[in-house]
Design a protein that fits this description.
42% helix, single chain, TIM Barrel, alpha/beta, 10 helices
Length: 265
């Protein structure tokens, strides 16, 4: 049971879990993992779809999840190295999948797969002009995020760590700063999440959602892991809404023995 809804680009969603679809051991495991996750946003790489020799019913699985769960498809431009390439692929995705939602990725470094901030902003400007709802994958740099907002993006997807690394949130301070400086912007931690505890931590920082792929698809039991992440995301969101206890420099007695009235039954 998800705690509350959020509204990216005017679409109300109950689930705060965005799930990728690459690398699953079989189409059936993918379908079962989507169901177990409760995700209402499912990402798919167009380059992966085009390069596959046979999709084994992959597209139909995605469409089935969309029908059964009311899920929305979020194609991505993974693998693009220039703004021009990303814009071209986004237009192809819109034609193929019939959605104006696009996850924008422009890779700037081959080793870390870190997004290119200049290329990402350049592509975002053009895609917004072309009528896309852009979900840009970016670093946790505040100024880059502000430039993407200036370009017309209404959602930001800063990384927790390099894609597929499973390292979790490498810079909680930067992520906390983003949340504080951009209080009304939907923020999704994307990339680097390796364990449900990482997802819970992101939600406890006040982020609106989490996007991940490898941590589920590469698990020994992807279906069970998808469920674990769903529970962790809900728990982290509930903790944020309830008010996470602030850390203290010193010990603070949890049970004062004086100065507090209490009743004895």
């Amino acid at each position: 049971m998800h705690t509350d809804s959020w509204t990216p680009y005017g679409i109300e969603l109950q689930s705060r879990f965005l799930l990728g679809t690459a690398g699953y051991p079989s189409p059936q495991v993918l379908a079962d993992s989507i169901a177990a996750s409760g995700a209402q946003v499912i990402t798919v790489g167009l380059k992966r779809t085009m390069s596959a020799a046979g999709d084994n019913g992959f597209i139909e699985i995605i469409r089935g999840a969309m029908r059964e769960r009311g899920a929305r498809l979020l194609p991505n431009t993974a693998g693009c190295r220039t703004a021009r390439e990303a814009v071209t692929l986004a237009h192809m995705a819109r034609e193929l999948y019939g959605t104006h939602w696009i996850k924008l990725e422009v890779v700037g470094d081959e080793h870390t797969l870190q997004p290119d901030p200049w290329g990402t902003v350049e592509a975002a400007v053009q895609l917004v002009r072309d009528g896309f709802a852009v979900f840009p994958y970016c670093t946790d740099d505040l100024v880059t995020c502000q430039r993407l907002l200036d370009a017309g993006c209404q959602v930001l997807m800063p990384w927790g760590a390099p894609i597929g690394s499973g390292q979790g949130l490498l810079n909680p301070f930067a992520l906390r700063t983003l949340r504080a400086r951009l209080p009304g912007v939907p923020l999704v931690v994307d990339a680097g999440i390796g364990a449900p505890s990482h997802a819970a931590q992101a939600m406890e920082l006040g982020f609106d959602a989490v996007l991940l792929n490898s941590a589920v698809s590469q698990a020994v039991d992807p279906v069970r892991m998808a469920r674990a992440f769903s529970l962790a995301i809900d728990a982290g969101r509930s903790a944020w809404c309830a008010g996470v206890m602030a850390p203290q420099d010193m010990a603070v007695a949890s049970t004062p023995v004086t100065g507090q009235p209490f009743l004895i039954g």
